[in-house]
Specification:
Blueprint lengths: L4 E5 L8 H16 L3 E4 L5 H12 L4 E6 H5 L9 E5 L2 H11 L2 E4 L4 H15 L6 E5 L6 H12 L11 E4 L4
Parallel strand pairs: 1-2, 1-5, 2-3, 3-4, 5-6, 6-7
Helix pairs in contact: 1-2
Length: 172
């Protein structure tokens, strides 16, 4: 199935490694070039801001989904194609899942991991069947990938993790 819209889950901070920004910019250019709509958290800061800015700068379409609480903190991006304001974080995630054909996880913090694991769980429960990619920029997710392997080895997963999560080292 062709990917027409991609949810990007990522940090509202930049992180320390310049490769995170480099990979984010490269992904944004690829998305815009291939006509893939960005669906993301609607923020204007950190990697979130970069992905939205770069998709827009390259002629792409960006749909942001942001909860009211973050609008109150003035974290919403005002220069994107469409901004949907929702009541809460749960509604935000559900709306993002509904709008995307697949998801990619870039470096981020607790919120990014929450989004990854909820999406994988929903996938496993057949709530959706969307592909999930982790962009392991500079080995950022090596420990997490190892832990997922540990969960597999200890028989806590119902299937091979690679059935649900595809690991990438480069945006292309």
């Amino acid at each position: 199935m062709a990917i027409r819209s991609l949810a990007v889950f990522c940090g509202s901070k930049f992180g320390n490694n310049p490769l995170f920004k480099t990979h984010t910019v490269a992904l944004a250019k690829l998305m815009a070039t291939h006509g893939v709509t960005l669906v993301y958290g609607g923020g204007n800061v950190g990697i979130m801001g970069i992905i939205a800015d770069e998709v827009m700068n390259n002629g792409g379409k960006v749909i942001g989904v942001i909860p009211k609480v973050l609008v109150a903190w003035e974290r919403q991006h005002t220069s994107i194609s469409e901004l949907l304001v929702v009541d809460d974080m749960h509604t935000r995630k559900k709306k993002m899942y509904d709008l995307c054909d697949a998801a990619v996880i870039l470096p981020g913090g607790f919120g990014t991991l929450d989004e990854l694991f909820e999406m994988v769980t929903w996938n496993q429960l057949s709530i959706h069947d969307k592909r999930i990619f982790i962009l392991n920029s500079g080995g950022f997710y090596n420990h997490l990938i190892a832990h997922i392997g540990q969960m597999q080895d200890e028989n806590f997963l119902y299937e091979e993790a690679r059935e649900r999560i595809i690991i990438l080292d480069e945006p292309a």
